[in-house]
Amino acid sequence: MNYRHLFFTLILGLCVLVTYGCPALLIGGAAGGGAVGYIAGELKSTEEVSLTRAWGASQEGMKDMGYAITHKERDPSGGQFQLTARGADDKKITVTLIKKADTLTEIRIRVGTFGDEPLSIKVLESIKKRL
Fold first, then answer.
1. Does the first or last residue of the chain, that is N or C, have fewer Cβ atoms within 10 Å of its Cβ?
2. pTM for this one?
C-alpha cells in the first residue's frame, strides 16, 4: 500500500471538512421541505410553490411575526418579488422571491446587513406554515 498517497488523501479530506462549514452552512431538513442553505448572511430555500402563493405567504408570515411591511416591489416581468419589513427591534428583514418555474420559487431572506441565521430560519418557518 502506498502510504504517501493515503497520507495526502487524508490531509485533503481534513481540509475539505475544516473549510466546508465556513462559506456555507447547509441546513437541509432543519427548516423542513426543499433545499435550504445559509450563505454569506442570506438564507436561501427553494420551494415547490407558485410565486404568487409564496408572495401571499411571505406577507402573512411577516405580519404574524409582528413585523410591519415597509416596502413591496414587483418586477414588471413577474419573475421576482421583494418585500422589506421592520419589527419593534428595528431589524430590517428583506424577503426576495424568485420564480424558477411555474411551481418552483426560490425564497431568499436577509436580516440586516450581515445576516442573522436564527431569525432568518424563524422567518422561513413562518412563511412555510402559510404555503
1. N
2. 0.74
